[in-house]
Structures are given as structure tokens and as C-alpha cells.
Specification:
Alpha-D-Glucose-1,6-Bisphosphate, Chain A, domain 4; 172 residues; single chain
């Protein structure tokens, strides 16, 4: 039985940028939610939209992540590449800033804020992005909202499953 709950999801368009805000409850402690969200080499285990993901630490200590994501609106599908710099504060926050010269985004800042609530975690998520490609004005925002609503609940349930396995294997 899952307790995952998508409490808020808002997608707006502001000129060329798309702004996403969401709040999600996950029935797992913040440390386990953070571990799942920051396992960049295994993001496909959380969402089938991730075709590929990997991370590395540069010689200057900067963490970078690469993701290859597929999104579809009806019969039209697009594969999108993103390279980003990461800043993390375990187990509280993750910020990913797109590197425009290597990505399909002119601008992108994604932020996850994790807050304990009861025995679980509230994940406040914001993402401001400006794609290099055309997104239809009305249908694009609707399609993004629809895809995110489905993916958010699926990812939350998978994080809860991972947390349950961790509790069993560690005896918690």
C-alpha cells in the first residue's frame, strides 16, 4: 500500500520559459528520499521517461549529471539531452542548473526541497526552463502537466518501495 500524494502541481508559461511547481508527499524518511533522488546513475528506476542518466565529479569537485529524457504528446515524441551542474545539501536539497552550451535548454534551474512530515517527506519541487525547441503554447503546458502528474506519483511509489526494501535489509 502506498501513501504517495501529489498535493500541488502547477505548470505555467511565462513568455519563452515554463515554470513548474509541485509538492509531493512520500511515505519515506528524507534521507531515503534524498538517496533515491540523487542516484543519478539509476534515474530510469524512478521514471520510464529517463532513457539514460549518469553523473561524474569534475577535477574541481563540481558534480555534473547527464540525462536523456523522452517525452511524448500524442504521437509526437521528442528526446531531450540535458547536462547540469549539481549542488546538494543532504538530505535537505538538490539544485540542478542546466549547462546551455551542452543541453537542449537555453536555461534551466531545477530545485528539490525535502522537509520531514510525520514519518515521511514533503518534496517541494520547482523547475524553470527555457527549451531550445518549440513547445506549443496551450497544448504544451497541458501535456507537461499531464506527464508530470503521472510521473510524480509513479516516482513517489518507487521511492517508497526502495525505502521499504532499505528498512527490511537494515532491520529498521
Amino acid at each position: 500500500m502506498f501513501a504517495a500524494d501529489l498535493r500541488v502541481l502547477d505548470v505555467q508559461r511565462n513568455e519563452g520559459r515554463i515554470n513548474v511547481e509541485s509538492e509531493l508527499y512520500i511515505a519515506a524518511p528524507p534521507a531515503q528520499v534524498f538517496a533515491a533522488l540523487s542516484d543519478y546513475d539509476n534515474l530510469a528506476s524512478l521514471s520510464s521517461r529517463f532513457l539514460e542518466s549518469r553523473s561524474r565529479i569534475d577535477s574541481d569537485g563540481t558534480m555534473r549529471v547527464y540525462t536523456l529524457i523522452e517525452g511524448c504528446v500524442w504521437f509526437f515524441c521528442r528526446t531531450v539531452e540535458r547536462y547540469a551542474r549539481l549542488e546538494t545539501e543532504p538530505p535537505v536539497s538538490i539544485t540542478a542548473t542546466a549547462i546551455p552550451e551542452s543541453s537542449d535548454f537555453l536555461y534551466g534551474v531545477e530545485h528539490w526541497q525535502l522537509t520531514p512530515e510525520g514519518g515521511g517527506t514533503v518534496v517541494a519541487y520547482t523547475h524553470e526552463l527555457e527549451p531550445r525547441f518549440w513547445v506549443p503554447p496551450l497544448i504544451g503546458v497541458w501535456a507537461i502537466r499531464r506527464a508530470l502528474a503521472k510521473d510524480a506519483i509513479t516516482a513517489a511509489m518507487r521511492i517508497e518501495q526502495l525505502a521499504q526494501k532499505t528498512r527490511v535489509s537494515t532491520g529498521e
